[in-house]
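Thread: quick sanity check before group meeting

JM: Hey all, I'm pulling together slides for Thursday and realized we never actually wrote out the predicted structure for the chain we discussed last week. Dropping the sequence here so it's in one place. If anyone has concerns about the input, flag it before I start.
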Amino acid sequence: MSTYTKLLSAFQLGSLLLPNRAALSPMTRTSAESNGLANDRMARYYARFAKGGFGLIITEGIYPDLLNSQSYKNQPGIANEEQAESWKPVIQAVHREGGRIIAQLMHAGALVQHDGFIPVAPSAVKPVGTMLEDHGGSGEFTVPKAMTISEIRKAIDHFAQAALRAKLVGFDGVEVHAANGYLLDQFITNYTNLRTDDYGGSTERRIRIVEEVLRAIRDVVGPDYTVGVRISQGKVNDIHHKWANGIEDAKIIFQKLSNAYPTYIHTTEYKAFAPAFADGGPTLAELAAKYGGLPVIANGKLGEPAKAEQLLTANNADLVAIGTSALVNSDWVNKLKEGTTLNHFDHRFLHPIATLRDDEVVV
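JM (edit): ok, ran it. Output follows.
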């Protein structure tokens, strides 16, 4: 008999009744066709997690437009009707296994790791660090082009139109990726946003674009469709970054996001159970719950069920998103129910392709 009472309890996330509080975390997989179409391999990959008991699945980042939002080669898109239609078999495969699936919408901004266009960003600031070799890049990033107001408005509209396509092809919701160093996070971050207009300067102005994206999406998908937003401090190219004004920044960011009518806030930290700022202080998920007043999904080293259960029991979050542990335990939830031992993580599965453990390889 499982001891994970809270983790395995049902939860109402907006209009979605979920059988448990475990979500599959969005993870870059770069297994789409070169033209951004989803494929059968991806359908089998995502279906395995639904079959394994995950009540909610959040996809890898999907690019919303063909102009400059794609970050990686073989990243899937939802920038046109053909790309949107290609997701139908993936959605249907997940639904057949009893799961729910949310499309994460992601604009690369400056973090581009392929040829094809000049990256754009809030300001012409070269990203710190180097490209991710596992994701097909090498060397330093390119200096991006600073976006004009017209380009910002186009990007906002592209998010909204991508969300509408997602709804029309059957996704159960969308999640706006405003974390991990991609475009929207580049606006939030003080050292990548040097603008002096309404989208730069104070924290209130730097979060504005995310508010506008959420409002634009809500306008086209309606009041009942599930819309989430993912927020982090760290980035794929700067994992130790913290918001300059600590809890005061968190208060502003989560209150502003809440006012833009998302269904939930998804926080991701290196360790979700660690204090967001000072030792002994609240976690980022706890701050999101306090100042956002919405359901919170927490992500970050929660593959050990006891840690996930503790976070939920302490009411620091409503759901947990499981990432790397799920790659070697696509049946993570079912194993908790059955009291079966979990597989230890294997670093081979950090490579961003739609592959699980050797005994579960998707071919």
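AS: nice. The longest strand covers residues 226-235. The chain has twelve helices and twelve strands.
JM: adding both to the slides.
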